[in-house]
Amino acid sequence: MRQLFFLSVLFLALFGCSKSEAESNDVAVSAVMVPPPPPAGASESNRKDQDLNKSSKTKIPQKIIKQGSLRFETDNLENTYNQIQKAVSDNKARIINDSEGKDYNSVYRSLTVKVPSQNFDRFINNVSKGVSYFEVKNISAEDVTEQFIDLTSRLHTKKKLEERYLQILQKATKVSEILEIEKQISAIREEIESKEGQLKYLESRVSESTVTIDFYKTIAEKEGIKISYGSKIWNALKSGFYSLSDFLISLISVWPFVILFCVFAYFIRRRLKRRKKE
């Protein structure tokens, strides 16, 4: 009877150990196979950032910077200028620079115009009416959409980082921690303002195109000679008058020396006359 009791106890002990090992193995396997749950709010925030990036890429329209440069000859500068002014008015543009001049064989005028990008092509067509040929006609279009999206994404990231630092600042208690956090916030704010300035500059260049227009009229060869010869005579007369004036002014400025020279010459002449009499 006693032997039977010991055998039953031994059997239960062996059965219990094997069962506990199997359970421990199952737990280990489940711990390896099942990943730990993500922290609360992490997957949701990542999903929001991804949705924001996708929406920013889809919502931001194409950003293109357009520029133009025109140079041509005209028979009448005034008529051409009036035509350009009408094109400026019709396309809601504005002239930001206007200069004119004349060289040996031509008179010319140069304009720099800011045009709304949506009216750029129509403005070029309006200015080109009546032009037989262009000596220079350069039209360029630069796509800055990727640069705009990159700046927008970086700006969003910096603003989110600033919000996190502000939340940490509200919980900080030590003066050293507060000062360090405020230092970081100040640096982030500078970067945010820099990114915002770059975005505004890009937006202004995209919204308004720049067009430079140079037009000129050739002066006939005979007319050029007459103008040049007459201007030379007039310049020579003015130069002679100014030279005479400068000479008189220089004499007035050295009047003490002139008086001394006259007195000295008078005494020498008088002495010479005495010698002749002796």
UniProtKB/TrEMBL annotation:
Basic and acidic residues: compositionally biased ranges: 45-54
Domain DUF4349, chain residue ranges per copy: 62-268
Ranges where the record places region Disordered: 33-58
Chain segments annotated as coiled-coil in the UniProt record: 178-205
Keywords linked to the UniProt accession: Coiled coil, Membrane, Signal, Transmembrane, Transmembrane helix
InterPro entries hit by this protein: DUF4349
Transmembrane segments: 247-268
Pfam families: DUF4349
Signal sequence bounds: 1-22
UniProt-recorded name of the protein: DUF4349 domain-containing protein
Protein species of origin: Flavobacterium anhuiense
